[in-house]
Amino acid sequence: MAHTTRDKEKLLNRVRRIRGQVEAIERALTEERDCGEIMHLLAACRGAIGSLTAEVLEGHVRSHIVDPDGDSKRARAAQELIEVLKTYVR
């Protein structure tokens, strides 16, 4: 079973929260709110998308490349890759 299928509900909940954040950005623009507030909303949305991306990437590495919970050199490298990717996309 693919990790996105296994984690489907959790991932869909994240997407729904992101949709709500994008709608909040749209409302703020429509209502001509202060640019500082809009930038804050944009940053929050960007962070949420980054977190979703990191979660899907981690699942991909764990499910399709190598299990980083193992005790091999490859497993340690996979875990390092996951940590770098998490830092990069957030």
From TrEMBL:
<dbReference type="Pfam" id="PF02583">
    <property type="entry name" value="Trns_repr_metal"/>
</dbReference>
<protein>
    <submittedName>
        <fullName>Metal/formaldehyde-sensitive transcriptional repressor</fullName>
    </submittedName>
</protein>
<comment type="similarity">
    <text>Belongs to the FrmR/RcnR family.</text>
</comment>
<dbReference type="InterPro" id="IPR003735">
    <property type="entry name" value="Metal_Tscrpt_repr"/>
</dbReference>
<dbReference type="InterPro" id="IPR038390">
    <property type="entry name" value="Metal_Tscrpt_repr_sf"/>
</dbReference>
